[in-house]
Amino acid sequence: MAHSILLMQPTRKAESRTYADYETVVECMEGLCKVFEEHLKRLNPTSSQITYDISQLYEFIESFTDLSVLVFQKATNTYSPYGKGWIKERIYAMLRKQAGQ
């Protein structure tokens, strides 16, 4: 897979913008899941174990003012942008593969 840059803006404030880069799309989706898990840990600081379902992850994704991924396209030597819908599809595929289905 291709180098990917995760662009996140959780609130309307421009100062909330951040990014992270990954070697693959799968690593990028795993990184976003880790961001969500850290969010859950902050919300539940006394819980020793955090569990969630995909609908909660999707709600988290939708809560962002802006969330997108830039994926490197080797053929054109450019990055293509993808939005929340694409991100949710990729996360679903990744989790399904991890579950062995």
How would you characterize this protein structure?
With 101 residues, the chain is an alpha+beta fold. The protein is built from 3 helices and 4 strands. 44% of the residues lie in helices and 24% in strands. The chain has a 4-stranded antiparallel β-sheet with strand order 2-1-3-4. A hairpin with a 4-residue loop joins strand 3 and strand 4. Helix 1 packs across helix 3. It is globular and about 50 Å long. The model has no long low-confidence stretch (mean pLDDT 94).
Structural class: alpha+beta
Categorize the overall geometry: globular
Radius of gyration: 14 Å
Spatial gap, N to C terminus: 21 Å
What's the helical proportion of residues?
40-55%
Question: How many DSSP E strands?
Answer: 4
Outline the fold blueprint.
Blueprint: E1 4-9, E2 18-22, H1 25-43, H2 54-63, E3 66-73, E4 78-82, H3 84-98
Antiparallel strand pairs: 1-2, 1-3, 3-4
Attribute tags:
single chain; 101 residues; alpha+beta; four-stranded antiparallel beta sheet; 44% helix
What does this entry show, briefly?
This protein has 101 residues and is of the alpha+beta class.
